Amino acid sequence: MDKLIIEGGVPLRGSVRISGAKNAALPILFGALLHAGKSNISNLPALQDVATTLHLLRNLGIEFDKAGDVVALDASMLNSAKAPYELVRKMRASVLCLGPLLARNGFARVSLPGGCAIGARPIEQHLQGLEAMGAHITLDKGYVRAEAPEGGLQGCRYVFDMVTVGGTENLLMAATLANGTTVLENAAQEPEIVDLARALASMGAQIEGAGTSVITVTGQPRLGPMTHRVMPDRIEAGTYAAAAAITKGDVLLEGAELEHLDAVISKFGRAGVEVRREGDGLRVRHHGELHPVDVETQPFPGFPTDMQAQFMALMCVAEGSSTITEAIFENRFMHVPELNRMGADIKIKGRTAFIRGVEKLNGASVMATDLRASATLVISGLAAEGMTEVRRIYHLDRGYETIEKKLQGLGANVKRVPEDEPGIDTIP
Ligand code: EPZ
């Protein structure tokens, strides 16, 4: 295991290339299961979760060659339809193989993901939707056993009880090979859904309405090869934007797309942080004070829950009090105790964090608990006075490609060292 040692106080300057989006790449890789042949996906980020997904695909019988950010997959032969617990527990997104496997070969056996640090994260919407398409679903020793009816899945109209990104993705993929038309209502509208739909359309899938709350899919007897370039990662972009803002820097986020971050950019603007289009990316610059801004996370196009922790870091040093309400996950404030150890003044009541801005944060030895919480500890360390040590950064490696190299490229004083190297806690 590694940790990051950060010396705060350096304004970030320069440009950083935004990588392919983790939350688009994962469903898109599973989507390649829908074609019994070769597919080609580019702009894949070099992340632990992508490696885990490729490991799972290999377990299913998929062969692939990865060169840089391009992977050539051959899904001609499936020799398993099982997603085992040891892989699913590492990465919940493994449940996204359920819809494609069921549609492709009529059977799937996928471990229930179990909860994770940020919440229980059930998948009943995925299962109810597949049942509405005629699948027979049983739960057996912690596994979902799903079987399609004779003749394959049937198109249907399904209304999600709540907006679910993964649920929309699983059913969208299953519907592409179903008999007849499927209408998904109360569907997630995230840009990653639009990117998945584009990747599926490159295979010949007939999809309308991706990016809106009603998606209509006309099932096809088979799909052809996928050829797709993954969209840029809007959450990575937002994370570096927060790092630029909190250090009073001036950074170009190369490849970031403005329309993927409307709600975030609007809140940054209210906080006094300028974000505008420049070239093929976004320029983020900030000087002066940060104004307090209230936020409530919502499904897209609302403020994304995956940016909640990062925005909180900014509000910790804003000029006044603000509130952040986490309306998507029930336990996504694990970064708060660690931020308070750095001198922040945050109190949690139910799903709302009440933040009183402080003059500055102080460096400390802190521990990462989940992906986005880790990012906020790094952001805070970049602005804090003195040294910060962020431990258990394997959480970071799941979702941020070479984060210390990208930050060093922006002038940050950060290094990655083995966990057991002497830390900064030198106080006897
Ligand atoms: C995706 O998770 C993302 N992961 C998450 O990003 C993101 O936070 C989340 O969408 C919300 O935007 C990937 O895309 C790989 P949901 P997902 O189903 O699909 C409840 C990150 O940091 N729910 O939209 O699992 C659920 O418990 C990760 O990159 C049910 O109750 O999220 C949650 O409270 C973290 N029943 C809410 O809906 C269901 O059947 C939203 O979950 C499904 C979901």
What keyword list fits this structure?
428 residues, alpha/beta, UDP-n-acetylglucosamine1-carboxyvinyl-transferase, Chain, 4-stranded mixed sheet, 24 strands, 30% helix, elongated, binds ligand EPZ
Can you walk through the features of this model?
The protein has two domains: 2-19 and 232-426, Enolpyruvate transferase domain (UDP-n-acetylglucosamine1-carboxyvinyl-transferase, Chain, Alpha-beta prism); 22-229, Enolpyruvate transferase domain (UDP-n-acetylglucosamine1-carboxyvinyl-transferase, Chain). 30% of the residues lie in helices and 25% in strands. It contains 14 helices and 24 strands. Helix 1 (22-31) runs parallel beside helix 2 (48-60), helix 1 (22-31) packs parallel to helix 7 (191-201) and helix 5 packs parallel to helix 6. The protein starts with a strand and ends in a 10-residue tail after the last strand. Ligand EPZ binds next to helix 1, helix 5, helix 6 and helix 12.
